[in-house]
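Worked example 3 (structure in, sequence out).
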C-alpha cells in the first residue's frame, strides 16, 4: 500500500509537467492537477504509466522529403500522452491519442544536423513517463540503388517460399512454430532469401536482369483459421506474404532485415535491379489493428461490420459512377476477411506513404510492384506515386490491375489525367490484355490475330512501350495447364514477349515448362531448391531434354534481346496480320529486326514488303534467323516471300 501511494505521488509530480505542456499542445482547459490525482485515488483508479510496445516507423533519416515524419506508437496508457526529446534537432509535436489509450500519433521533426544513431525519446502522461528508442539511419547510397527497371530488362519473378531453401534453420522458427509442412500447399515450404542469393547465378544464366519477389512483410505467426480453403481446413499460413501483420518487419521464414539487405546488395553486384512487392490495400486478418484500430475509421468498416469486395473494377473509370456503385470495389474487404485500409484517412495515408519510402531507403530497392491497384482510391495513388517519385526520381512503379480491358489499364498509367482530374502516377502496369491473348493464341491455339489486336490498342496508353508482358504469375493456372498447351506453344509465347514492346516478365518455373493448376498448385516447389529433392532443375544435368529445350530457348532469347537494341528500344511496325501468321519490325534509326510467327499447325506462307525500311535493311539483303532454327530469307527488291514451318518463329537480322 505504501508503495502504491509513493507511486501515486510520483505520478502527481509527473502530471504537473504533463498538464502544463498538454495545455499548450492541445488547447484543452487545464485540469487542476492535484484534484485529478486525488480524484483518481478516491475513486480507487490507479492510473498506470505509459507503455510503448511498438513504434512505426522505428527509424527515419535526415534530408528526407518527408519532414516531419509521423510516428504511430502502439502501447498502453497513452491517453493524453506527449513526447519529449532531449536530443537537439529532434522535436515532437502534434500529438493525437486514441480513446482507449492504445495509440499515439506524433510528428517527429529531424534537423539535418542530427547524426546517425539511436536516440531515446520520452513519452509522458499524467501517470508517468517511459522511454522508447528511435533511430536515425543512413539510407542506402543513391549510387547503385533506386535505379528503376526499363524495357532493357527482363524480370524474373520468384515466389520466395517455393524457390529455394537456403537456410533450414528458419523453416520452423521459434516465433511461429508449426507452419512448415511441405506436403501442404498453403503451408511454408522453406524457401527464403538465402535461397535466392544462392541462385543468383542461375537467374542470371536465364538472361534475367531484374528480380521481383513476393512480399517480405511479417505475416501471421499462428495457424490462420480465418482465411482457409479446402483441403487444408482448418488452417493455412501467410506463405505468400500478402497478409502483413507488421509492415515494418521481415517474416522470420524468409530471413531477417540484414539478410534482405544482403540479398539486394548481392543482386545489385550481380547486375540485377530489384523490385519490392508492396501492399497498401489491406492487412492480414490477424493484424493487431483488425480488432483494435488506431482510429475509428482506420479501416473501411470493422471486422463485424463491413462490406465485401465485389471486384467491379470498371467502376473506377466509369464517368457515370457514384459512390454507391464504386464503394464495394474500393472499400470492400477481400474475400470478406482482409481488413481494408482507409486511405482517405490522412493518418492512414501518411502511414502507408512513409512505409513505402522507409523500405526503399533501408534496403535500396530499385522499383516497387504495387498490389491491387483498382481497389484503392485513385486520389491515394496520385499522392503516393508522387511521394515515391519525389524521394526517388528513378524508382518506377509497376501496378497490378488484374483485368483484360486496356481502357481500364491505361486509365491507371502515369502521364495523363483521367476524366476525374487525377494522374495516378503509376509508371507501368502488367499487360493483362496481352496475357489473355497470348494464352488464347499460343496455349489454346486460337488465332494469333488476338495478339495483334492487343497491340492495335496501344494508342490508349500514355506509354505502351513500358508495359510489362508476361505469360503468367502466381494468381492463375500456369501456361502449361491450359487445354492444348504444348512446348512449341510455350516457346512461341516466350518469343513473343521477348521480342515485342514492353519489359518481359518470367515466372519462376516457366523456364522448365512447370505445370500447375489454380493457387496453390501454380506455386510448386522448384525442383532442386529443397533438401532431399530427388531432381535438380537448377542444373543442366538435372533437367529433362524437354526442360532444357525450353530453358535454352529462353536463355537464347535473353541473349538475343541483349544483343539487339531494336528489340528493347525500337519502334514497332506490323508487316503481316493474318489469321495465324504475324510479322513485325522493330526499328531504331540504324537497325531493324524482323520477327515472324506462324502459329498454324501447318506451314504458312507469308509475303511482305520492307522497302520502306531499306535504310536499315537494304532492298536485296539476306536475312538470317538469330534463333538459328529457320532458313535464311532472301529479300528481292524490298519484298519478302517465304514459307514458315508449323508453329514456329524467327527473329531475322541482316546476315
Ligand atoms: Ca528456409
Ligand atoms: Ca511471421
Ligand atoms: Ca480497398
Amino acid at each position: 500500500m505504501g508503495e502504491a501511494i509513493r507511486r501515486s505521488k510520483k505520478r502527481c509530480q509527473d502530471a504537473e509537467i504533463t498538464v502544463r505542456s498538454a495545455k499548450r499542445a492541445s488547447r484543452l482547459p487545464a485540469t487542476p492537477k492535484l484534484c485529478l490525482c486525488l480524484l483518481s485515488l478516491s475513486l480507487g483508479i490507479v492510473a498506470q504509466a505509459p507503455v510503448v510496445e511498438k513504434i512505426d516507423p522505428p527509424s527515419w533519416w535526415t534530408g528526407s522529403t518527408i519532414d516531419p515524419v509521423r510516428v504511430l506508437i502502439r502501447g498502453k496508457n497513452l491517453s493524453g500522452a506527449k513526447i519529449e526529446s532531449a536530443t537537439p534537432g529532434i522535436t515532437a509535436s502534434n500529438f493525437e491519442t486514441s480513446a482507449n489509450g492504445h495509440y499515439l500519433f506524433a510528428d517527429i521533426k529531424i534537423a539535418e544536423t542530427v547524426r546517425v544513431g539511436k536516440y531515446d525519446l520520452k513519452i509522458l502522461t499524467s501517470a508517468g513517463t517511459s522511454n522508447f528508442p528511435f533511430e536515425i539511419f543512413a539510407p542506402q547510397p543513391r549510387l547503385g540503388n533506386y535505379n528503376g527497371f526499363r524495357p532493357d530488362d527482363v524480370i524474373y519473378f520468384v515466389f520466395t517460399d517455393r524457390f529455394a531453401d537456403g537456410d533450414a534453420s528458419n523453416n520452423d522458427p521459434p516465433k511461429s512454430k508449426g507452419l512448415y509442412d511441405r506436403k501442404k500447399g498453403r503451408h511454408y515450404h522453406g524457401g527464403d532469401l538465402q535461397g535466392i542469393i544462392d541462385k543468383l547465378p542461375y537467374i542470371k544464366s536465364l538472361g534475367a536482369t531484374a528480380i521481383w519477389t513476393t512480399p517480405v512483410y511479417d505475416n501471421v505467426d499462428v495457424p490462420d483459421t480465418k482465411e482457409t480453403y479446402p483441403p487444408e481446413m482448418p488452417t493455412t499460413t501467410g506463405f505468400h506474404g500478402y497478409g502483413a501483420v507488421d509492415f515494418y518487419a521481415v517474416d522470420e521464414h524468409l530471413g531477417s532485415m540484414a539478410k534482405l539487405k544482403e540479398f539486394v546488395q548481392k543482386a545489385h553486384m550481380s547486375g540485377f535491379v530489384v523490385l519490392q512487392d508492396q501492399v497498401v490495400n489491406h492487412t492480414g486478418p490477424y493484424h493487431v489493428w483488425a480488432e483494435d484500430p488506431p482510429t475509428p475509421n482506420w479501416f473501411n468498416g470493422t471486422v463485424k461490420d463491413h462490406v465485401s469486395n465485389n471486384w467491379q473494377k470498371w467502376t473506377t473509370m466509369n464517368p457515370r459512377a457514384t459512390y454507391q456503385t464504386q464503394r464495394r470495389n474500393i472499400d470492400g474487404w477481400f474475400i470478406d476477411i482482409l481488413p481494408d485500409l482507409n486511405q482517405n484517412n490522412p493518418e492512414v495515408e501518411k502511414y502507408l506513404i512513409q512505409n513505402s519510402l522507409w523500405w526503399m531507403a533501408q534496403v535500396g530497392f530499385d522499383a516497387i510492384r504495387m498490389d491491387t491497384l483498382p481497389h484503392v482510391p485513385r486520389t491515394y495513388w496520385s499522392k503516393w506515386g508522387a511521394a515515391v517519385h519525389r524521394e526517388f526520381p528513378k524508382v518506377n512503379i509497376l501496378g497490378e490491375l488484374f483485368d483484360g480491358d486496356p481502357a481500364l489499364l491505361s486509365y491507371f498509367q502515369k502521364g495523363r489525367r483521367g476524366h476525374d482530374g487525377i494522374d495516378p502516377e503509376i509508371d507501368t502496369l502488367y499487360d493483362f490484355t496481352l496475357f489473355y491473348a497470348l494464352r488464347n493464341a499460343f496455349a489454346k491455339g486460337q488465332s494469333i490475330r488476338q495478339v495483334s489486336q492487343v497491340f492495335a490498342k496501344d494508342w490508349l496508353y500514355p506509354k505502351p512501350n513500358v508495359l510489362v508482358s508476361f505469360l503468367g504469375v502466381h494468381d492463375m493456372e500456369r501456361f502449361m495447364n491450359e487445354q492444348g498447351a504444348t512446348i512449341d506453344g510455350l516457346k512461341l509465347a516466350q518469343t513473343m514477349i521477348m521480342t515485342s514492346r514492353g519489359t518481359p516478365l518470367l515466372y519462376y518455373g516457366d523456364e522448365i515448362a512447370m505445370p500447375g493448376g489454380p493457387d496453390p498448385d501454380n506455386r510448386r516447389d522448384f525442383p532442386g531448391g529443397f533438401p532431399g529433392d530427388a531432381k535438380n532443375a537448377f542444373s543442366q544435368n538435372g533437367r529433362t531434354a524437354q526442360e532444357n529445350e525450353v530453358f535454352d530457348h529462353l536463355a537464347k532469347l535473353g541473349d538475343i534481346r541483349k544483343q539487339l537494341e531494336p528489340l528493347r528500344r525500337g519502334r514497332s511496325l506490323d508487316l503481316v496480320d493474318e489469321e495465324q501468321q504475324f510479322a513485325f519490325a522493330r526499328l531504331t534509326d540504324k537497325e531493324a529486326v524482323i520477327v515472324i510467327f506462324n502459329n498454324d499447325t501447318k506451314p504458312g506462307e507469308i509475303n511482305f514488303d520492307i522497302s520502306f525500311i531499306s535504310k536499315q535493311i537494304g532492298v536485296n539483303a539476306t536475312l538470317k534467323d538469330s534463333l538459328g532454327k529457320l532458313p535464311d530469307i532472301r529479300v528481292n527488291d524490298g519484298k519478302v516471300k517465304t514459307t514458315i514451318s508449323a508453329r514456329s518463329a524467327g527473329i531475322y537480322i541482316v546476315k
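Notes: The pocket of calcium ion (ligand 3) is lined by residues 281, 330-331, 340, 375-376 (CB under 6 Å). Confidence is low (pLDDT under 50) at residues 1-42.
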